[in-house]
Amino acid sequence: MKILITGGAGYIGSHTCVALMEQGYSLVILDNFSNSKPAVLDKLRKLNDNFVFYNVDVTNEEALERVFSNHKIDGVIHFAGYKAVGESVAKPLNYYINNVGSTMILAKVCQKYNVNKFVFSSSATVYGENKVPFKEEMELLPTTNPYGETKAMSERILMDVAKANPNFAVSILRYFNPVGAHESGLIGEDPNGIPNNLMPYITKVAKGELEKLRVFGNDYPTPDGTGIRDYIHVMDLAEGHVAAYKHLRKGVHIYNLGTGKGTSVLELVHAFEKANGIKVPYEIVERRPGDIAICYADASKAERELGWKAKRDIIDMCRDAWRFENLT
Ligand code: NAD
Ligand code: UD1
């Protein structure tokens, strides 16, 4: 009985692999390294080696079938996909083909091999400009970019598959803003080039690799004027997947994985400085196009139904992100 993890060499996937192996699960990890490096697997092995790995593109049906015929797969967790919002605007077809395509092909192969447990990585971006806190039952608002559309479409596709196959058990997890790293400092978020996201940018500034943080706007309707997000420690998120997998049941069940607490850009900068005793120079610049003012979860459904709740706070997130940055 093994769990198949697509995108398991990536940021959230690798942390979830650790959390699952700690619970005794044996894993079959797939990745094509389009946004990760093989070295991650060596680091994973130091933490736990209860996995096999295949360099497979999840949109390749034949290659997937070979994996499914070689292993008795109990269920899948589908992380593989592209995630850069700006790039999705410039290269929409790459996003539709990879993100929607991989979900369809994986679901198809699952049907053929009678694998009925499926956990899917979705995003809070599907809520668009709904009113906070975001709740699972809200109507999804069109997102302003193809990346968000690929998540909303993948969700709908899985719902249709579940309607056609009443044995299909799907958990759709809508992540808020994952940050931080495994406590060992061995694995973490390691984006190529200049980071787009706030925490990896802060750690590069703290290290002196980038001169200063640009804070995108201080005229939002928030207490200090900067954007508010629901940052969640990646190990809490990883443990949320373990809980979701254990609680899989027939039909489609949607869960927000967030902390339910909002933190502004400046609050995060100051928390980082406090946690690590290091200054983060910044300047205020124009708003970033496409950003919303406030985003945080109502995380009560996951607590009620999965018995899962984020435990780590902003200081833990800043400390662990910094430890990883210094060990890489
Ligand atoms: P990541 O880029 O670090 O990991 C994704 C992994 O999938 C990478 O290792 C990449 O090489 C692999 N991959 C991509 N396409 C593939 C394919 N066709 N076949 C095989 N492997 C493929 O990203 P992440 O932050 O770990 O995100 C994981 C999932 O969670 C993604 O689906 C992402 O859209 C979603 N998500 C991420 C965030 C976030 O802030 N990081 C937020 C919401 C949702
Ligand atoms: C981005 C994506 C979103 C994705 C999420 C999680 C966009 C528009 N949205 O969201 O789809 O699900 O990442 O990975 O890209 N900020 C700065 N300076 C920086 C970087 C960010 O001030 O250099 C601010 C942003 O304006 C925002 C906050 O920090 O208020 C968080 O930004 P970021 O980490 O990019 O995440 P999101 O914008 O929430």
From TrEMBL:
Reaction equation(s) it catalyzes: UDP-alpha-D-glucose = UDP-alpha-D-galactose
Protein's organism: Ureibacillus terrenus
Cofactor(s) it depends on: NAD(+)
Gene (name only): galE
Keywords: Carbohydrate metabolism, Isomerase, NAD
Cross-referenced Pfam families: GDP_Man_Dehyd (PF16363)
Keyword NAD applies: yes
NAD(P)-binding domain ranges (all copies): 4-320
Family: Belongs to the NAD(P)-dependent epimerase/dehydratase family.
GO annotations of cellular component type: cytosol
Subunit structure: Homodimer.
Name recorded for this polypeptide: UDP-glucose 4-epimerase
InterPro entries on file: NAD(P)-bd_dom, NAD(P)-bd_dom_sf, UDP_G4E
Gene3D superfamilies per record: NAD(P)-binding Rossmann-like Domain, UDP-galactose 4-epimerase, domain 1
Any one GO MF annotation of this record: UDP-glucose 4-epimerase activity
Pathway(s) it belongs to: Carbohydrate metabolism; galactose metabolism
Presence of keyword NAD: yes
Enzyme class: isomerase
EC numbers on record: 5.1.3.2
BP-aspect Gene Ontology terms: galactose metabolic process
